[in-house]
Amino acid sequence: MTASKTPDDHSPEGPNLDADSSRKRPTINDIARLAGVSKKTVSRVINQSPSVRDETRERIEAVIAEHGYEPDPQARGLAFRRSFLIGMIYDNPNPQYVVNMQQGLLDGMKGSGFELVVHPCDRASPHFLTDLRTFIERQRLYGVVVTPSVSEDERVGRLLREIGCEYIRIASVQLDDPDRMIVGRDRLGAHQAAKHITELGHTRIAFISGPDTFRSSHERRGGFEDGLNEAGLKLEPNFVANAAYTFETGLTAAEELLKLSPRPTAIFCGNDEMAAGALQAARRAGLNVPADLTVIGFDDFQIASRVWPPLTTIRIPTREVGRMAALKLIAGGQEPRELKAEPERIAPSLVVRESSGPPPSK
Amino acid sequence: MTASKTPDDHSPEGPNLDADSSRKRPTINDIARLAGVSKKTVSRVINQSPSVRDETRERIEAVIAEHGYEPDPQARGLAFRRSFLIGMIYDNPNPQYVVNMQQGLLDGMKGSGFELVVHPCDRASPHFLTDLRTFIERQRLYGVVVTPSVSEDERVGRLLREIGCEYIRIASVQLDDPDRMIVGRDRLGAHQAAKHITELGHTRIAFISGPDTFRSSHERRGGFEDGLNEAGLKLEPNFVANAAYTFETGLTAAEELLKLSPRPTAIFCGNDEMAAGALQAARRAGLNVPADLTVIGFDDFQIASRVWPPLTTIRIPTREVGRMAALKLIAGGQEPRELKAEPERIAPSLVVRESSGPPPSK
DNA sequence: CTGAAAGCGCTTACAG
DNA sequence: CTGAAAGCGCTTACAG
Fold first, then answer.
1. With a 7 Å cutoff on the CB, does B27 touch strand D?
2. Which residues in chain A touch residue B272, judged by CB atoms under 8 angstroms apart?
3. Within an 8 Å CB–CB cutoff, is residue B5 touching chain A?
4. pTM of the model
5. Is the CATH number of domain B85-185+319-340 3.10.129.10?
6. What is the C-alpha to C-alpha distance for residues A312 and A189, in angstroms, rounded to an integer?
7. Does the nearest atom of strand D lie within 7 Å of A138's Cβ?
8. What is the pLDDT of residues B76-128, one digit of tens each?
9. pLDDT digits (tens, 9 = 90+) for B276-309
10. Which CATH number is correct for A186-317, 3.90.1150.10, 2.40.100.10, 3.40.50.150, 3.40.50.2300?
11. Which of A232, A204, A206 is nearest to A221 (CA)?
12. Which of B3, B21, B140 faces A74 most closely, judged by CB atoms?
């Protein structure tokens, strides 16, 4: 054991959990005594009750600051019957999504005193709902943020309401009270992709869809179709392939599309992973991207700029979405000011790289 | 703390926390009453105290099971002066590493009643240590798992010991008591890479290193050099380039190496991200991988199989490492039986894909 | 082997 | 505007 030992530290040696707590952290009782008030009044200051005389409040705040007092969240939680933990409930298999979302939630929780507890889950498990319930009730979670595709499960919404757990669902469609949701703008993003492709002059345009179990699959397809229609084009049924947001399924789906004759000159993929698979399929088919084939992704995760050629894609500000979700949860469902003032901050945007170009001239 | 809704908020609308709580969850008092014992005895059963008569224990366990009683972690934590939360402290920028590690920790914590609180941090921040201390002390964390590169910071080890927080450091070198560490086998992995490359017949072999701030950079280099030496080769200083574990720095470093004359016929990269960058550099230089150049990565993250050609790399079982770390932390530093019996479960292994081959014959 | 009392550090409900 | 009492659901220390 190195470092600072205080005079009253009589511990013999080794990491003893109790002995080493240098100067014990002050409690509400210490602050009350030092400020010459009851602990209830200190409690009022902590909880920002308006009914405290300014002078009293200032005196207490000074003592709190001087001693670096921080209320114990466990004791508060016990008395409140509710912890200061926020859960992130997710089943999205993409690590980049998960990390960006966590980071965003953490951004939004910063300085609030809340902490983030992560809870991946499996919607297909038979214990899914009971596990979720146990997790939330046992920890008496302050609230949860739920991301796709779990967020789209109506059983989850019902459960959360039934046990009275505050929540924010993140999804690409309005599935619940607006107070309880952050709605993504997937349609808009897919629309931008369609616009880009048609403006390049493509007419034989294909789409690789994500799995039916994600609402975003449908939204992205819908937005894409709308965009094509605006350009006077249709999404031909045989130019639509179903995949599952993974690299492998994207690869297979693209292989099928490229066997068609005439084959598409552009493929819009429901996410970057599938687009990376499509790039692989093009290579195997001896096609040059973008000279022979335009490939476009969705998400703008790291992989988009790592593959060759770097992917033109639709960027979703996942971290910012997470930040907004956390702020909204903490505010009890109130739309964050920033988001109200500038809804565009969670809007998708087109990122043009090297995988898109005009159709082959022949 | 943004106090938004308090428990006695009897607002007519919206999710009322109290109204919906169907049947209240039983407490230790309920169980004690129903079992005809004192709550202290129930507490003994919960905490697996040996001094309870078998008959009594069974009776109590039956009541617990019947009512689905679960002790409140907040109340337990308050009495224990220690929560049932485990923190993951990290600053690794790779999302895949973070998610795999989290998943592994969760695997190891499963059924233990602990929950995982995530805490990314920035070693370079001036508040780094105070923030960390505040986080741990305020939440009275049961313990923490620290990953590279924060885990390699001696200030962190000192702090943790000083405040008496249980911890496991994950690193590529033994930096602490064996009870407090999970040591990775990076040297072995790099050695395997060297063996593979030399067996293919290469002699002009380069290395792209990670940043000095990660011990793994040095270990991987060391293991690689050892492997080359065994084959009677040396790692030439001008064939070593320094990068920072990122795609961009890997790209730049590889460009420099490929300008040399004669240029290397194989490059071993400290991780997959840099190897992806090296692949990009080769393409820009008009070189074919693996015909003109062998490129090898380290980690076997998803990106390794997404790039073209798919990367030969060294697989690290990150998730398993995480699981072992959690088990060890919960066991108070005792090596998990599984790991003792089979240390190889956290050993690296060579994964041969398409980015490696014999050197060009010319 | 078992229990009654006190306490962990907060808050609610009730007074004044 | 402020406080004394009781309580949140557990555990420790002390008895027996």
1. yes
2. none
3. yes
4. 0.91
5. no
6. 12
7. no
8. 999 999 999 999 999 988 999 999 999 999 999 999 999 999 999 999 999 99
9. 999 999 999 999 999 999 999 999 999 999 999 9
10. 3.40.50.2300
11. A206
12. B140
